[in-house]
Amino acid sequence: RAKAEPGPSYAFFEASMNQAAQERMLAEQSLAKALEAGEFELLYQPKVRAGSRELLGFEALVRWQRPGHGQVSPAEFVPAAERTGQIQALGALIVALATRQLRDWLDRFGEVLPVAINVSPLQFEDARFVPRLLAAIEAMDLPRGSLQIEMTESAAIGHIEEVRPQLERLRQAGVLCALDDFGTGQSSLTMLRQLPIYSMKLDRSMIAPLPQHEASAVVRATCALGHSLGLEVVAEGVETEEQALAAEALGCTQLQGYHLGRPLQSTQAGELLAGRLSAALSAPSSRPDAP
Ligand code: C2E
Ligand code: MG
Ligand code: MG
Ligand code: MG
After folding, report:
1. Among residues 51, 74, 148, 174, which one has the fewest Cβ atoms lying within 10 Å of its Cβ?
2. Residue 12's pLDDT is what?
3. Is 203 in the pocket of ligand 1 (CB under 6 A)?
4. Is residue 72 within 8 Å of residue 64, measured between CB atoms?
5. Strand partners, 182
6. Residue of the nearest CA to atom 9 in ligand 1?
7. Residue 237, ligand 1, Cβ within 6 A
8. Strand 254-255 relative to strand 70-72: parallel, antiparallel, unpaired?
9. Which residues does the annotated region (Disordered) include (predicted)?
10. What is the Å distance from ligand 2's center to 11 Cα?
11. Could you give the CA distance from residue 257 to residue 242 in angstroms, rounded to a whole number?
């Protein structure tokens, strides 16, 4: 229509702004409904130790089971929730789901491995986020260290002044933070040293080209940097055994990716956890009998 009937350019901008506003409103409404209807769930992707490949814990990844749309990726709705301000409510729900899951596993298995939730830096803009997170951990009576968080490198760096003291407070309470998608942001060594983090997760884009020569050099140097700062270094998005072996040889201390385990439904993750916990017991009699 704009082409057939050329008018002043503001008409075009006005129309597109209306469309953007409308889309925002629709997103806001459907997210609000979804939050109310309980359409979000967490999947749990394993993290394993480099070398032994033993299960170390899980990363919680949110999914929206949207009626009529199937499973919606967080890459689509997390940015929308950030734009509409609903990331606070979504974030609170994710904390509730993860802490409840940890409580359930503890009740069933007596022990648990850490679960890391992904956190948007916008959640730290609400001063109630950290106290509420700590309150949720306390309410579920979770062991120290069982809940962890992940924040992307670019997000942490972009909000370093607000984020740092809150990460420090979390660390003191045993909630460790990983720097996610490392290698895609612009963090300086100074910033890295200032952030109270316990691990860096090397982005899939750094891992995918392994064992190619230049990519290997970058991963080796990044691992050396991480080790010198006393950090765990996690290879993300490991899809092949070749990549896994290269990441291990270059100094990654943990591995994650489809090759080691896809994001799992709660039930399957619980089975994996139960297997890992019973394997850790020395008594063979503790193994459950076949039904
Ligand atoms: P992320 O935290 O870096 O998570 C890794 C993403 O890569 C996940 O996508 C995961 O399913 C996918 N992945 C894992 N292994 C492989 C692999 O071997 N190959 C490939 N191609 N992909 C792999 P997902 O679940 O779609 O999440 C995308 C991003 O959305 C996450 O990146 C994270 O930044 C964000 N996100 C996920 N869950 C949450 C959440 O609960 N809250 C917030 N704020 N953000 C979340
Ligand atoms: Mg993550
Ligand atoms: Mg990542
Ligand atoms: Mg990512």
Report:
1. 51
2. 57
3. no
4. yes
5. 202
6. 61
7. yes
8. unpaired
9. 277-291
10. 41
11. 13
Which residue minimizes the CA distance to atom 19 of ligand 1? Answer: 237
- Is the link from the previous residue into 291 a cis peptide, with omega within 30 of 0? no
The reply to whether ligand 1 has any atom less than 6 angstroms from the CB of 46 is no
The pLDDT of residue 23 is: 73
Q: State the pLDDT at residue 279.
A: 85
Does the beta carbon of 258 sit less than 6 angstroms from any atom of ligand 1? yes
50: CB partners within 8 A, 6+ apart: 235, 247, 248, 252, 253, 254, 255
Q: Where are the alpha helices (DSSP H) in 113-238?
A: 129-139, 153-158, 160-172, 189-194, 204-207, 213-228
- Angstrom CA distances, 35 to 31, 41, 74, 92, stand at 6, 11, 14, 11
Task: Please name the residues in contact with 168: beta carbons below 8 A apart, sequence gap of 6 or more.
Answer: 196
Q: What is the pLDDT of residues 61-111, one digit of tens each?
A: 999 999 888 999 999 999 999 998 999 999 999 999 999 999 999 999 999
Quick: pLDDT tens for 139-193: 999 999 999 999 998 888 888 888 999 999 999 999 999 999 999 887 878 888 8
The angle, 0 to 180 degrees and rounded to 10, between the axes of the packed helices 74-84 and 87-109 is 130
Give the residue-averaged pLDDT of 36-63.
Answer: 97
Cα–Cα distance measured from residue 107 to residue 248, given in angstroms and rounded to the nearest whole number? 34
Dist. CA 22–CA 217, nearest whole Å: 48
